[in-house]
Amino acid sequence: MYIIPANSKKSQLIFNVFRPIDLFGILLPGALLTVVFLFVFPGDSISAIVIKLAPVSLALFLVMPIPFYHNVLVYLRELYLYFSSQRRYYWRGWCASYVGSDGNTEQAESKR
């Protein structure tokens, strides 16, 4: 019977930051699309280079790690969910006892 800390899910991530979809679903396709753009589109002007590098730049922005979230994509998702859904939160913490809605106190040990 072990209590697992709330931040233990970071160990399930790649390099403790990235999910597989971040690396293989966003970053890798962005890099491959940029390589294709470099060979397909002619031009060496600043605007052509910006267009060619746009896919990898966007992918890097989305998977860039930020504090308290895995990356910017997770932060943007949480921000959207916060402002678009009902704001009623149910919380039951890591306490020794819990007082339910009926007023009864339950010990944490009895729930295991």
Computed CA radius of gyration, to the nearest angstrom: 22 Å
Share of β-strand residues: 5-15%
Secondary-structure class: mainly alpha
Main beta sheet, described?
2 strands, antiparallel
> What order do the strands of the largest sheet run in, or round the barrel if closed?
1-2
Head-to-tail CA distance between termini? 8 Å
- Overall mean pLDDT stands at 79
Give the ordered list of helices and strands. Answer: HHHEE
The shape, in one word, is: elongated
What is the count of β-strands? Answer: 2
Uncertain stretches of 5 or more adjacent residues? 108-112
Q: Estimate percent helicity.
A: 40-55%
Quickly count the helices. Answer: 3
Show the helix and strand layout:
Elements: H1 20-40, H2 46-63, H3 72-84, E1 97-99, E2 105-107
Antiparallel strand pairs: 1-2
Helix pairs in contact: 1-2
